[in-house]
C-alpha cells in the first residue's frame, strides 16, 4: 500500500489565531504552517530557522502521499504542531487563477449573510432506505429521463442561486484554483488535490449536489450514477451523456472518444493502438495497480487520465473535463467522481484490517462549506463522511474484474540484469534509457538510475506484511497548468516493450492542468511533490527480493522537458 504525492514546502509562522466560537476551532499553538499549494513561492519567510520541519500542506493537505506511512507521518505532524485545516472563509473568496481565455468571471459561490450550520448526518434520524447509486451504463430509460430533468432544473436556476448548475460547477473551481483561504489565514490558499483532502472533499461535493438535484425533481431518494470505467461493460462513455439533445451532453469533450470508443485509463494525450480486447485487458491491469497501492495513486491514475481523456483538445486548456477550473461544467464529471468515491469504499473493503481511514483528529476535523438543498450554508467535516451508509447512500454491487488482473513479467525482463550495469547501444535503441546524471534532472527523455534497497536479503511474509518497501520519486516539479505524465519502471530491460500491463511498471505521475496562487496575489505557478509506489509485490514477481539494488527508469509520456525530478530512493514504511 503506498501513495500519490506529498507536497513539500518550508513552514511559515503566523500569529496566534483568536478564538472563534462560530468556527468551532480553537487556537492551540502560536506556530502553524501555511497551506501552500505550490512550494516555490518567492514570498516565503526565510527567517524562521527554528520553525517546524513539517508543513501543514505535507501532513494534512499532502496525506494522499502517505499511504502505508500515514500514521508515522501524522505523529511527526503532531510534533510539528499542525492544526486541522480550517473551514474556508467565503467572505474572502477571491478570483481564481484561471488560464488565459477561460470563460468564467468568478468561481466564488453566492454570498451568505448567515453563519454556517454544522452538518447533521441523516443516518440516525432517517428511516428511509439507502439511496443506491447505479452504474451509469446500466440505468433504465426512466432513470435517464429523471436525471436529465434534474440537471435541466439545476441549469434553469439563475447563477446566483447556490443550487444552480453554474454555482455547483464553480465549487470545484473555487476549491481547486485558488479562490479560498482557510478561515483565519487570509494570505494562505486551500487546495484539495494531491492530498488526503481529495477523497472527503469530493464525497461532500457529490453528496450536496445529489441532495439538491433530488429536491428539484421532488425525489429525495434519487441517487446520481457512477461511471463504472473499472469494468469492461462500463469502459465506454455512458450513452446518456453522449446524446446531443440531452442536458447531460457537453460539447466541450474530445469527439474522438464518444461511444463506442473504449476509455484508456492510462491516457497520456496520445491515442492507443489497441483493439478492444487489448484495451480492456490494459485497463484492468492499470486498475489492479492502483487501489492495491493505496488511495493516493487512485487520484493520480485513473482519476487524472480520465479527466484528460474527456476534455476537448481543441480548447486552449482542454476544457471542460481536462482542466480543474472547468471540469464541473460537464455533467460527466459527477459520474466520474462518483466512481472515484466508490473506489475509496472499494479500497477499504479489499483489506479491512490494513485499509483503514486515518484516525488523526487534525485530518478528521478538517472542514468545508457547501450549500444544501434548502439552501443554507453547511459546515461539514471529514469525520462526517467516512461512511457512505451514514450519509444515506450506497453503490450498486458490480464485479471487480481487475482484482484478478495481476500484471505479468515481460519476457525480455524475466531475468533481472545487474542494476549497476551500463546499457548497451543496442539496448538503448530497443527502448532503453540514458543513465541519469546528478539529480535534479529534467525529464526530456527516459532516464535510468540504480537505487539501493534498504534491505538486501529476502524478507519473510511477516516482515513484508509489517513494512512495505516504497519507491520514492522525490522533488517532482512541474507548472500547474501543464498536462504532464511520466511512467516509473523497475528492472525493465526494455521499457518500450513493457506497456502498462507489465509487472515492471511500478506506477505513474500525472498532472491535470490547474493554476493556483494568482487569486491571492501570489506568483507561484509550480508544484513540488513526491510520488510513492509500493514495491513488495512487484519485487516478488520480478524475483528481485534479494537484490542489493534495483534499476529505476523514468519515462516522460506527456509534457516532455517540463518536469524535473529531485531524486529517487527506496524506504521501508509501516
Automatic annotation (TrEMBL):
Pfam families: PPO1_DWL (PF12142), PPO1_KFDV (PF12143), Tyrosinase (PF00264)
Cofactor(s), names only, from the UniProt record: Cu(2+)
Basic and acidic residues bias: start-end ranges: 40-56
GO biological process: one example: pigment biosynthetic process
Residues annotated as binding Cu cation A: 172, 193, 202
Domain called Tyrosinase copper-binding: residue spans: 193-210, 330-341
Sites where the protein binds Cu cation B: 303, 307, 337
Highest taxon listed in the record's lineage: Eukaryota
Cross-link (2'-(S-cysteinyl)-histidine (Cys-His)) at residue(s): 176-193
N-terminal signal peptide: none
Cofactor binding remark: Binds 2 copper ions per subunit.
Annotated keywords: Copper, Disulfide bond, Metal-binding, Oxidoreductase, Thioether bond
Disulfide bonds: 93-108, 107-173
Example of a GO MF term: metal ion binding
Region (Disordered): 1-56
Family statement drawn from the similarity comment of this UniProt entry: Belongs to the tyrosinase family.
UniProt name for this protein: Tyrosinase copper-binding domain-containing protein
Amino acid at each position: 500500500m503506498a501513495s500519490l504525492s506529498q507536497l513539500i514546502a518550508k513552514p511559515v509562522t503566523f500569529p496566534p489565531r483568536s478564538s472563534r466560537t462560530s468556527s468551532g476551532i480553537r487556537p492551540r499553538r502560536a506556530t502553524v504552517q501555511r497551506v501552500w499549494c505550490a512550494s516555490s513561492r518567492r514570498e516565503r519567510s526565510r527567517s524562521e530557522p527554528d520553525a517546524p520541519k513539517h508543513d501543514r500542506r505535507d501532513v494534512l493537505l499532502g496525506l494522499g502521499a502517505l499511504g502505508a506511512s500515514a500514521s508515522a507521518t501524522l505523529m511527526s505532524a503532531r510534533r510539528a504542531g499542525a492544526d486541522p485545516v480550517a473551514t474556508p472563509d467565503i467572505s474572502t473568496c477571491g478570483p481564481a487563477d484561471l488560464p488565459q481565455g477561460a470563460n468564467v468571471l468568478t468561481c466564488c459561490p453566492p454570498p451568505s449573510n448567515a453563519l454556517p450550520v454544522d452538518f447533521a448526518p441523516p443516518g440516525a434520524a432517517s428511516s428511509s432506505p439507502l439511496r443506491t447509486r447505479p452504474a451509469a451504463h446500466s440505468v433504465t430509460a426512466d432513470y435517464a429521463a429523471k436525471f436529465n430533468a434534474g440537471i435541466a432544473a439545476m441549469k434553469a436556476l439563475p447563477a446566483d442561486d447556490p443550487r444552480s448548475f453554474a454555482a455547483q460547477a464553480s465549487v470545484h473551481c473555487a476549491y481547486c484554483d485558488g479562490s479560498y483561504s482557510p478561515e483565519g489565514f487570509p494570505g494562505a490558499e486551500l487546495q484539495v488535490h494531491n492530498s488526503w483532502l481529495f477523497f472527503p472533499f469530493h464525497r461532500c461535493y457529490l453528496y450536496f449536489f445529489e441532495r439538491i438535484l433530488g429536491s428539484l425533481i421532488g425525489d429525495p431518494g434519487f441517487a446520481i450514477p457512477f461511471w463504472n470505467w473499472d469494468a469492461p461493460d462500463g469502459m465506454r462513455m455512458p450513452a446518456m451523456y453522449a446524446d446531443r439533445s440531452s442536458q447531460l451532453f457537453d460539447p466541450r469533450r474530445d469527439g474522438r472518444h464518444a461511444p463506442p470508443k473504449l476509455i484508456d485509463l492510462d491516457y497520456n494525450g496520445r491515442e492507443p493502438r489497441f483493439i478492444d480486447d487489448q484495451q480492456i485487458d490494459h485497463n484492468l491491469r492499470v486498475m489492479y495497480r492502483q487501489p492495491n497501492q493505496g488511495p493516493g495513486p487512485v487520484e493520480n491514475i485513473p482519476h487524472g487520465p480520465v479527466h484528460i481523456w474527456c476534455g476537448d483538445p481543441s480548447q486552449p486548456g482542454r476544457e471542460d473535463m481536462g482542466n480543474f477550473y472547468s471540469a464541473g461544467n460537464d455533467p460527466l464529471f459527477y459520474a466520474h467522481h462518483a466512481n472515484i468515491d466508490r473506489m475509496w469504499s472499494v479500497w477499504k473493503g479489499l483489506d479491512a484490517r490494513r485499509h483503514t481511514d486515518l484516525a488523526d483528529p487534525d485530518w478528521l476535523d478538517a472542514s468545508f462549506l457547501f450549500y444544501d438543498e434548502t439552501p443554507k450554508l453547511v459546515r461539514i467535516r471529514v469525520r462526517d463522511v467516512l461512511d457512505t451508509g451514514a450519509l444515506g447512500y450506497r453503490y450498486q454491487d458490480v464485479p471487480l474484474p481487475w482484482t484478478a488482473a495481476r500484471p505479468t513479467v515481460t519476457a525480455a525482463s524475466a531475468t533481472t540484469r545487474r542494476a549497476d550495469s551500463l546499457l548497451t547501444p543496442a539496448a538503448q535503441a530497443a527502448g532503453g534509457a540514458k543513465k541519469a546524471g546528478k539529480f535534479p534532472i529534467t525529464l526530456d527523455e527516459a532516464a535510468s538510475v540504480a537505487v539501493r534497497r534498504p534491505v538486501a536479503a529476502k524478507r519473510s511474509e511477516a516482515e513484508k506484511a509489517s513494512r512495505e518497501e516504497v519507491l520514492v520519486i522525490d522533488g517532482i516539479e512541474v507548472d500547474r497548468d501543464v498536462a504532464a505524465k511520466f511512467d516509473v519502471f523497475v528492472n525493465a530491460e526494455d521499457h518500450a516493450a513493457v506497456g502498462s500491463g507489465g509487472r515492471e511498471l511500478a506506477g505513474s505521475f500525472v498532472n491535470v492542468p490547474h493554476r493556483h496562487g494568482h487569486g491571492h496575489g501570489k506568483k507561484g505557478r509550480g508544484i513540488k511533490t513526491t510520488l510513492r509506489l509500493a514495491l513488495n509485490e512487484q519485487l516478488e514477481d520480478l524475483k528481485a527480493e534479494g537484490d542489493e539494488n534495483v534499476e529505476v527508469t523514468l519515462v516522460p509520456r506527456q509534457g516532455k522537458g517540463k518536469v524535473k525530478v529531485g531524486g529517487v530512493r527506496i524506504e521501508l514504511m509501516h
